[in-house]
Amino acid sequence: MTAPGTPEAPSLRQAAERVLLGNWTGHSTVPSHSLYPHQWSWDSAFIAIGLRHLSPRRAQVELESLFGSQWPDGRIPHISFSPAVARDAYFPGPDFWQAKTHGSVETSGIVQPPVHALAVWLTHQADARESARRGFLARCYPKLVAWHRYLRTCRDLGGRGLVAIVHPWESGMDNSPAWDDALARITPAPLDSFTRRDTDHASTDDRPTDLDYGRYVQLAATYRDHGYDDARTPFGFALEDPCFNALLIASEHALAAIAQALGLDPDRHLVAAEQLTSALATLFTEGLFHARDLRLPPPQAGEVAATSAGLVPAGSVAGLVPLLVPGLLQAGELLETAAGPRFRLGGVRMVPSYDLTGPAFEAGRYWRGPSWFNTAWLIHRGLREHGRTAEADALRNDLLALAAGTDFAEYVDPYTGEPRGARTFSWTAALALDLLSGS
């Protein structure tokens, strides 16, 4: 039965399928033909989760296409560039990154959150027989193991067992206020040294400022100029992000399930998930998980505990995503924070990307307040994980109503539901399709 205020399922399903078919390139799905005309890493994972209901085979191909851009060190780059798209259609493009895999696929040099093993496992479950026939799990498993190994070895920059991001883009939540203080220490690249393309397709009021973009460019250029070597690069920006690490935990649990399905020992992945979960607890304070800034100057005597631990004061939706983690000890406090004045779960549209009471809140600007469909999907999954069925159902209905009413917008104003960013956005359509299918 369709809940009051939600769209009729058949028509929404057909509309979501049209978006995914329209954004399909023959081997992968672009997030948006205008704003994001290549293949993005965590986008493809979310897209596959929805595509599995339309075509499990196509969902498998989506992920296999992404893994085709994997580097020898195991990293999965955040962009795999399409040779069919003009080289200057997106900035930074392949000429900026100067990165190429052994298979001559041009890519970026940074990464995005590791939701891939979860996507592989869910895709397999959609049609286990077809997956087995194609050897899907057997081919993906070693690639996922290499990906996680890269993150847990090369990116444990704090020595606590947590993965660090070295660029705001690696968080997937590019423009979050959680990165403001760390970015302020970065000297931006000169504005006349690059030409933005994102503002050709979206309002400047919705996008990061030129100053922030200059800092993004400088961070990427420094990493590039050091050969994307994590040991040699003098990272000016390095933070342990709760969302990134929570998704790695969820994916380690998925890897355990994949290993068991292949007749392999799942224990290594369960141990890794347990270790990461224990380390993640060090990011929890005052009812929310916070990022830790690894490049803060040493604390002075008498500073508060959160500051001395390097935790960033800004509260973002990234701090709620650990609800995904099975058996999370902090789940009760986290649920209280989600329902409280900072995020008002059930009182605003979906889940705002930044603390509604925070000083940097902007309802319409990229990751500084708007509600996003992928984080709502993750929190819906977390609510179900912890038995909060009523809240999960309400969030599901809100997500579906907004997807239908905004032509599958990239994100929305949390107070009004007004669409922002791109329309016919692929992960919005994919995750709506997933929820419509009872997931």
Automatic annotation (TrEMBL):
Q: Which organism is it from?
A: Kribbella flavida (strain DSM 17836 / JCM 10339 / NBRC 14399)
Output this protein's name. Mannosylglycerate hydrolase MGH1-like glycoside hydrolase domain-containing protein
Hydrolase: present as a keyword of the record? yes
Q: Which PANTHER family match?
A: MANNOSYL-OLIGOSACCHARIDE GLUCOSIDASE
A Pfam family reported for this protein in Swiss-Prot or TrEMBL: MGH1-like_GH
Family that this chain belongs to: Belongs to the glycosyl hydrolase 63 family.
Share an example GO biological-process annotation for this protein: oligosaccharide metabolic process
- Using the record's annotation, list all stretches that form the Mannosylglycerate hydrolase MGH1-like glycoside hydrolase domain: 36-428
The GO molecular function terms of this record are: Glc3Man9GlcNAc2 oligosaccharide glucosidase activity
Which keywords does this chain's UniProt record carry?
A: Glycosidase, Hydrolase
